[in-house]
Amino acid sequence: MNPFSNQIEDIFPDTVPLSEARNSALEQLSKTEFPKPEQEVWKYSKIFDLDFESLTPSFKNPADKKPEPSFLDIGESGLVEISDGWLTEQKTGTFLDSSGVYVGSLANMGADLSHIEKHLSKPKDFFDCLNHSYNPETLLIHVPDGVTLESPIYIKVQSITAGLVACPRIIVNLGENSEAKIIEHHLSSSGESLSVPVLDVHVGQNSRLKHRVVQDLGQKTWQVSKQNFRLEKDSYVEIFAAAFGGDYARNEIRCELKGRGSEAYLSAAYFGKKEQTLDFRTFQKHEAPNTTSKLLFKGALDEDSRSIYSGLIKVLPEAVGTKAQQTNRNIKLSENAWAESVPNLEIETNDVVCNHASTVSGIDEEQLFYLESKGIETSVAERLIIAGFFDEVTAKVDDPLLVEEIDSIMTEILENRFKGQGE
Amino acid sequence: MTKEKILNIEGLCAKAGGKKVLNGVDIQIKPSEVHAVMGPNGSGKSTLAHVLMGRPGYEVTSGSITIDGLDVLSLKTWERAQAGLFIVMQQPIEVPGVKIADLLTGVAVASKLDPQESLSLLREEAANLGIDESLLDRELNVDLSGGEKKRNETLQLLVSEASYAILDEIDSGLDLDSLALVAERINRAAKHDQLGVLAITHFNRLLDILEPDQVHVLVDGRIVETGPAELALQLEKDGYQKFSK
Prior knowledge:
The complex is a heterodimer of chains A (423) and B (245). Chain A is α/β, with parallel strands linked by helices. Chain A has two domains: 16-259, no CATH class; 365-423, no CATH class. Chain A has helices at 16-30, 114-117, 126-134, 365-372, 378-394, 400-422, and strands at residues 56-57, 79-83, 86-87, 94-95, 102-105, 138-143, 153-159, 164-166, 169-174, 179-188, 193-195, 198-203, 208-215, 221-231, 236-243, 248-257, 263-272, 277-286, 292-301, 306-315, 323-332, 338-347, 353-361. In chain A, β2 and β3 (86-87) form a beta hairpin. In chain A, α1 packs antiparallel against α3, α4 packs across α5 and α5 (378-394) packs antiparallel against α6 (400-422). The longest helix of chain A is centred in the last third of the chain and has 23 residues, at 400-422. Chain B has a single domain, classed as 3-Layer(aba) Sandwich (Rossmann fold). Helices cover 36% and strands 29% of the residues of chain B. Chain B has a six-stranded mixed sheet, with helices on both faces. Chain B is globular and about 55 Å long. The chains are: A alpha/beta (423), B alpha/beta (245). Chain A binds chain B through residues 365-367, 369-378, 380-381, 384-385, 387-392, 395, and chain B through 53-56, 76-78, 80-82, 86-87, 89, 92-98, 102-103, 106-107, 109-111, 139-140, 156, 160.
């Protein structure tokens, strides 16, 4: 019997509008097929190797189970926990202060969702439908007009139970002239599981958002993640992703610059090892005049790992004065590692400045020689060069907790790497 | 019995990019000695420097290099540096994201020195060379002027434990005041700290301060003449014409 059946009434704490949306997603899911290798958007992916049939939906809040340890577990007041797709902390809506900021379950927000509904993504592919059908509770972060959040909102997104498909969903809505910073930590237990998170972000006119995610999933976890950003006039977002974990981890980042003068800065640092596949698909869509998007993704691939970067900059006819950049650089640290980099431009107007670049190379021999000529042995010199390579991306991460976590993960990876070499 | 302290280059032949560049070079440098190597462009001066340090792309076909009796050619680049060789490259290489402090910490750890002491020595020497402290937080050679790079390299030489320094056109990129500062400081290291120096240059103004014990003329990968400091003056006046075939 297919565990992903339509018989899910009363399992999830839905209100009426949510239940209607879920039913429509279920309907769509039943008509949508699992990805096929010949589909262009799944080129180079290995999602077809996933034994999807062996997994079941997350029907129970794992509140009684032991959580995964995270660098965010330090008693910060702004911590929200999502486990197997369920909200384990912040069950009820929380107003951070009297300014009307809401962090909590979408279902508890009340009946009137119309003001945010128009900003939500509609399910398109199999994984969208899966998330919209089986997401137990959606986390809503709403920042009203004119409000600046002084401290970041930390979100721990964990897959605890093996054998499950976890469907976390987060909606972020920033009103006009507001400001927020959100940090997500994605982690999982050592068992096999699939995580299908969907993030929908709407940034209102003249608002600023910094969104950072550290993906440090367990070795047997698969992930297909969607991040959708919609930017209104003169808004500004920084999007950062660090990816270290997972068996196969895919992150699709879609950035729609809808309002005149909006700006998006996207960056990522990833480090693949063993037989991991790290897969990034990005879409910078310029829909309005004088919009800016800059993307810089940097990765290192060791052992038998693979990475895919495929990105598109699209400039619509009305988006005159667009400035767009797309850069992907990879260092291959072993013979067997493999990096695919596919940048693309689709420009439908003149008067734009767009460029893209991509490289896949080994550690620079000249840099290595230079450092060695100062008396630094090869392994330490390589370590310095790799850390230096990422510095361009990681130096811009300004949250002290996050900086420390990325630093500690990187150090551990590099130290293990050279320990292995010394044997 | 202790080995005699000497950097000994004997009958050195080397290829670069498959082409023979050095055709039997002999130079012996003892502690505190300053040797200059001069010669026309393409004579093999930089190749000599690169081969000494083991830069990739250069192949030694015959001859030997020893440092205090140790066979340099069998050593990796970093082992050569730890054995006491230091090269100031003509064009120091950019290493994005790596700071001079990272480098120095790495070197200190490798040499079993206290990184903190190395860093304070670095600051002290930086002040001697008129280097602004902010340079120490910059990425290695990235967006530095030619002069800044050379002063930076000199600084690293001075805080290193090197016994022999190879200076490949250290004067290029330095203005006259900086050149004087750098050359005087290296001269002092030779006189007081037993540093042996091999200075590759086109210009006498460096040698005026460095006061070489010997000047070697390198043409077509061979030392065609060796003489006292005055030889450099003569070369500056007459050029290398009389050595060309």
